[in-house]
Amino acid sequence: MIKPLNRSLETEIQKRIDEKTKPLGSLGQLEHLAKQIALIQGTLNPKLNMPSLILFAGDHGLVDEGISPYPQQVTVEMLKNFVAGGAAINCFARQHDLDLSLIDCGTKIAFSHPQVIPARQGPGTKNSLKGPAMTNEQLKSAVEHGRKLVLARKKVGSNVIGFGEMGIGNSSAAALITSRLCDVPLEACVGRGTGCDDRQLRQKSQVLRAVLENHSTAQSPLEVMQAFGGFEMATALGAILAAAEEGILILMDGFIMSAVGLAAVTLQPHVLEYMVFCHRSASPGHRIILETLGVEPVLDLSMRLGEGTGIAVAYPLLESAVCFLNSMASFKEAEVSRSL
Ligand SMILES: Cc1cc2ncn([C@H]3O[C@H](COP(=O)(O)O)[C@@H](O)[C@H]3O)c2cc1C
Ligand SMILES: O=C(O)c1cccnc1
Fold first, then answer.
1. What is the ipTM of this complex?
2. How far is the CA of 130 from the centre of ligand 1 (A)?
3. Architecture label for domain 52-317
4. pTM metric for this prediction
5. Which of 116, 141, 277, 330 could form a disulfide with 19 if both were Cys (CB 3.0 to 4.6 A apart)?
6. Which residues does the Swiss-Prot or TrEMBL record annotate as the active site (predicted)?
7. Residue nearest to atom 9 of ligand 1 (CA)
8. Domains in the chain: boundaries
9. Annotated catalytic, 19?
10. 1 or 31, which is more confident?
11. Mean pLDDT for the chain overall
12. What pLDDT is recorded for position 112?
């Protein structure tokens, strides 16, 4: 059970923000972020310690049905690229000094490397058109792995963790989860993913309609995750739940990770209070999730990559939020006159 945020300091935090040498409310969303982070940490002087990004990789059997322009092997090839430091997330993580952990939750082709933490549930999920993507045991095991990964980051001192993903086909899984959990028509949730052309988009929509019909009994967050989620998504679900339980600030990325976030919030509504949505992706389904949850993202840059890139580019703004709360002078300290 995830507890609601302790709001006993709220009035004091708001007072501290309002005493800074600026017109009331003039730092806009940075003020909301500062307050949320201070509440999560239960202090007037919040700190972002050892910021971490956990990147979950896994393959999707549904790719056999032609729902992505890219083959499954790109997942493991990108995992190698992450290890070599050549992907977008590597650039941005280096730029902002974010610790990047790479997790193999079950790529189709196994790749072991000292920098990749093994958490494999199998060689990718099963084709969800033909049956459940994963067994209940795999789901439970993935959730448990996610929990342990977060506890390990907490142990080394991390109090802010972002969650990213890599898994060819996972924009389909995200569309299915969004449609079912938000109870909106599938068509509104399906997008071009990595770049489907019109023909590929028609094929993707047709396949996903059939998948949704085949799993009409899957309704709860855990049922939908088992029916058409991915191992990387199930592991991220366990990680997000554990982070909220531990009072860690949770940084959310784009459509795919937000679909997992939606599952977490549907299971445990108070998880939302620990989350910052770092950007609004160009994927149409992401807008639906953000509106359903009633949240305003930090950035809107028409990005649609995943990997945690939306988190990494938004991170300096979180630092700014914490920075002004800690080090800006008050009217009294700076001897500046307040409004009449
Ligand atoms: C080279 C490459 C790098 C990526 N990095 C993230 N994704 C993103 O695209 C995938 C989902 O899109 P779809 O459902 O259309 O396959 C995920 O792996 C996601 O992280 C990538 C995709 C590609 C091709
Ligand atoms: O919005 C995202 O995060 C996204 C969209 C398409 C492909 N990969 C990720």
1. 0.99
2. 23
3. 3-Layer(aba) Sandwich (3.40)
4. 0.99
5. 330
6. 307 (proton acceptor)
7. 194
8. 52-317
9. no
10. 31
11. 98
12. 97
